[in-house]
Amino acid sequence: MKRERGAFGQFIHHFRFLLIIAILVVAAAGYLYKVKVVDATANLKESGNTERVYGDKRVFDFGNRLTDSEENKLEDLIHSQEKITQSDIVIVLLNESLADFADKYAEKYGYRVSTEQWVMLYADEFWEVNRFGYDKPQVLDGNSDSGDGVCLVDNDFREPSSGKKHTWMCTTGKVYHAFSTADINSALDVFYENVDDDIYEACKDFVNAYSRHMAGPSGVKIRFSLIAVVIAAGVMFIYMGINLSTKVGKQTVTERTYLTEDSPEFYVNENIFLRKSVTSRTIETDSGSRSGGGGGGHISGGGGFHGGGGHSR
To answer: How far apart are CA 168 and CA 312, in angstroms?
Structure first.
């Protein structure tokens, strides 16, 4: 006598192929997670730069805008991301006018720059003078192949001449090549979400956004993929559980089963779509508080090649 399966046995039998596929997918995702996330930095090189003026320090809170605890946590986050991104990550927080800095620049080079560019000049000089760069200190020869890293300078001082506060993201070396104008604006948008409410959160969000962009298809994205697989598997099991209780019989009739030769006929009128016309109009958008902008690159007064972009608020 053939033994009938219980409800659980029917469940396993009915969905056996889907279960096998789900197990294989989860196993593969788990393996990738282990290889790409847990061992993400195993084969990455250490920084070869031993000439940094400030050693391992990356956060410079000259405006006293962070607590000691926040500064230490930010330093830890940056150091954990530098090896993954293979780039120096420097954050400078100010609360002072940079007019004197700009005056010295004009005196030295014979021309003045706009108020929005003062933070750019500051970032360029700060990077070069303090010898930052993950691969090596930036070579001041006008080429864009050294000094890999990013320097975010935010000045909380409202310049009287412009009535605004200014921020600049300086990109150097391979980071210059990795960030387009749109990428820079996107990273600065993330920073500006919390810049006036919680500067620590703003800096942390910026570092994470920068790292995700630089890491590309690395461990961070694999982690998100694993979460997606788990969610998808959960939805699949719920779907199977719901549908298990539904008895699906075989189709025994068709649409013509009960029709006879004398059945009435129905005539259908159809409207045939012959052509279409499309109109369009341009919608103007507001560029907001962005200034500077661009990954086009420039050579600083010191001879270093930098990219970058800025926002104002």
So the answer is: 9
